[in-house]
Write a structure and sequence with these properties.
Blueprint lengths: L2 H17 L3 E7 L9 E7 L2 H17 L6 E3 L5 E5 L3 E7 H7 L1 H4 L4 E3 L9
Parallel strand pairs: 2-5
Antiparallel strand pairs: 1-2, 1-6, 3-4, 4-5
Helix pairs in contact: 1-2
């Protein structure tokens, strides 16, 4: 899979999260600072029901586009991690996101503008 595919995966994930009203969505390019992945998508959910709905929508929309996850962690928990190798999607309950602050680990990455991917209220 090419680097362009990883950005496409990230963009589809952002749109899927937004469609289920995920909050505080961030898209961070980290390919210059780690070999783990190229992009992180991080978002918050306000309830377990919304968390599951967002994770399901991300997986569905990416599968529809021909992308299958390498691995999924956190089913039935408060933090989903959907690993698409070049893009890793983290969806957390607000409380967990505030506690773990995972975006701080990647603050040296390049935060990408997602304004053209999300619907403005």
């Amino acid at each position: 899979m090419s680097k362009e595919n990883y950005l496409e995966i990230a963009q589809i994930a952002v749109k899927a999260i937004d469609s289920k009203r995920g909050e505080d969505i961030e898209l961070i390019k980290v390919s210059d600072i780690t070999v783990l992945t190229d992009y992180f998508v991080i978002a918050s959910a306000s309830s377990n029901t919304q968390l599951r709905a967002i994770a399901d929508e991300v997986e569905y929309k990416l599968s529809e586009a021909g992308f299958e996850p390498h691995h999924i962690e956190g089913e039935k928990s408060e933090w989903y991690c959907l690993d698409y190798v070049g893009c890793v999607v983290h969806i957390l309950l607000k409380q967990q996101r505030g506690f773990y602050q995972i975006e701080r680990l990647w603050e040296d990455g390049e935060k990408l503008n997602i304004d053209d991917l999300i619907i403005k209220d």
